[in-house]
Amino acid sequence: MAGLYFDDFTVGQRFEHAVRRTVTETDNLLFSALTLNPAAVHLDAEYSKGTPFGERIVNSIFTLGLMVGLSVYDTTFGTTVGNLGFEEVRFPKPVRIGDTLRAGTTVRDKRESRSRPDAGIVILEHRAWNQRDEEVASCRRAALMLKRPAGGT
């Protein structure tokens, strides 16, 4: 299953990604440890009882990565040169251990690359929701996408 080439994207195109993912305690613990984030609200159950959340919440950068990851098979798998940047990253609701996330993507813009004739830039807006249909994350992502090879279909 390959991603889309620059030429395949259309502004306004919408994807509802079929793959969903339940976030586990191990995900949160391992990601926080690997990224050297010792925030007690992610790791300390007793401390977290006294926070506004009342329990540990999932590391937001894990949430960002998972949201984008859920989009890859439908959009950029094998056809992206790289991410150029992320903007307007938002986390309107916390993700809790045991939440199941789903994601959707909308193509907001696209343009030819000025420096690479074999690629173009696509602006993707990603959004993620939990099992209660609460939006938990969103961002705009600029992806440098390969153009379809000459003679390719």
How would you sum up this structure, described in words?
The chain has 153 residues and is an alpha+beta fold. It has a single domain, classed as Thiol Ester Dehydrase, Chain A (Roll), CATH 3.10.129.10. The protein has 4 helices and 6 strands; from the N terminus they run E-E-H-H-H-H-E-E-E-E. Strands 1, 2, 3, 4, 5 and 6 form a 6-stranded antiparallel β-sheet that branches. The radius of gyration is 17 Å and the shape is elongated.
Q: DSSP helix count?
A: 4
CATH C-level category: Alpha Beta
Largest sheet at a glance?
Answer: 6 strands, antiparallel
* CATH-defined architecture: Roll
* Average of the residue pLDDT scores: 95
Shape: elongated
Radius of gyration of CA atoms, rounded to a whole number: 17 Å
What structural class do the secondary elements suggest?
Answer: alpha+beta
Distance between the termini: 14 Å
Helix content: 10-25%
Counting DSSP E segments of at least 2 residues, the number of strands comes to 6
Q: How much of the residues is beta strand, in percent?
A: 25-35%
Overall tally of structural domains: 1
Any low-confidence stretches, pLDDT <50, length ≥5? none
**In CATH terms, what is the fold-level topology?**
Thiol Ester Dehydrase, Chain A
* CATH evolutionary superfamily: Hotdog Thioesterase
SSE string? EEHHHHEEEE
Keyphrases for this structure?
6 strands; alpha+beta; 153 residues; 4 helices; 6-stranded antiparallel β-sheet; Thiol Ester Dehydrase, Chain A
Secondary structure layout plus pairing:
Blueprint: E1 14-16, E2 21-22, H1 25-34, H2 40-43, H3 45-49, H4 60-75, E3 80-90, E4 100-112, E5 119-129, E6 135-146
Antiparallel strand pairs: 1-4, 2-4, 3-6, 4-5, 5-6
